[in-house]
Amino acid sequence: MALLNFRKKDTVQPAGVNPYLEAFLQGYSIEVMPRTAEKVPDFKDLLPTGTRVYIAHIEGTPIEDMVATAAHLARDGYPVMPHFPARIIKDQATLENWIAMYQGEAGVDQALLLAGGVAQPHGDFDSSIALLETGAFDRAGFTRLHVAGHPEGNRDIDPSGGTLNVDAALRWKQKFSETTDAQMALATQFAFEARPLIEWADSLKAAGITLPIHIGIAGPAKLQTMIKFAVACGVGPSLKVLQKRARDVTKLLLPFEPTEVLTELAAHKAATPDSNIERVHFFPLGGITANANWAIEHGGASAVPASHV
After folding, report:
1. For residue range 282-302, what is the model confidence (pLDDT) as tens digits?
2. pTM of the prediction?
3. 144, 148, 248, 260: which one has the fewest Cβ atoms less than 10 Å from its Cβ?
4. From residue 106, how far is each of 26, 29, 226, 228 by CA, in Å?
5. Do the domain assignments include residue 231?
């Protein structure tokens, strides 16, 4: 079986690596923005060739910048998955133009579809479902489509709390996944506790939602930075993990790392290989370099079968 290509220095397994964590990190993905990607001299020094790189599309970012970042990463050997935030896409013509630009300049055939962070739609679309209903991605031959998962709920979708609307949307997406030729998966918001993530994943499977889950994990960052992003992104009950740490003044200046949550998730995956938790998606809140180096130190630079990409 063919293996992905790595620089020689990246193929040495770090001493003391947890084998379950190493296995769980294989095929991880990571998220960048054009302005943060510009600060990385050479992604090949940090990421295994073949690592899926999401490109976050923040409101106000010109599509030309998004496409240029995608083209750069694609040239360096990375499958690129740009965000398509429904609420900032004006109409179907704009959607199809974005798809054509990504495919023409960077050969993109993967996308993360989500509503986006703005309260009011700028045009015709208000959700990832609305984007999927256009059929534009199927017509363009996209091979992989990811949609958002919300282990701790989402008050933008269910303003009164609970998961009624989120669950209904997941049932719709499960049915859609059975009709499209594209592979689909859930990419989740980041959280800081393993047990609730496992229970959420198990509950989806019990409800007949079998989409693979790519668990969102915040990469290493200063505790203050982590709390700021967690609050801004609407992280739910697992925020208490950070709040508890913040009460310990000896840890305030130390970076918060995802070692504990990922070690527990990795042990669960090893014990339950048929779990719908498939792999890890990193949000590099403390920087791409810090996140990539953490992954390397914990075995995330090992070669992955090409079929896993």
Report:
1. 999 899 999 999 999 999 874
2. 0.86
3. 248
4. 25, 18, 32, 33
5. yes
Do the bridges between strand 221-222 and strand 255-256 make them parallel or antiparallel, or are there none, so unpaired? antiparallel
Strand partners, 113: 84, 147
d(Cα 21, Cα 298) in Å, to the nearest integer?
Answer: 7
Q: What is the pLDDT of residue 247?
A: 58
Distance, CA of 70 to CA of 109 (rounded, Å): 11
Residue 1 lies in a domain: no
Residue 68 lies in a domain: yes
Contact 46, 290 (CB under 8 A): no
62: domain CATH number? 3.20.20.220
Region 94-118: what's the mean pLDDT? 95
Q: Which domain holds residue 214?
A: 8-304
Total domains in the chain come to: 1
Phi-psi sector, 38: left (phi>0), alpha (psi -120 to 50), beta: alpha
- What is the token pair recorded at 66? 């998004």
Asked if the structure places residue 108 within a domain, the reply is yes
CA distances from 262 to 4, 221, 226, 251 (A): 23, 15, 16, 20
Nearest to 134 by CA among 164, 104, 105, 98: 98
Is residue 69 pLDDT above 50, yes or no?
yes
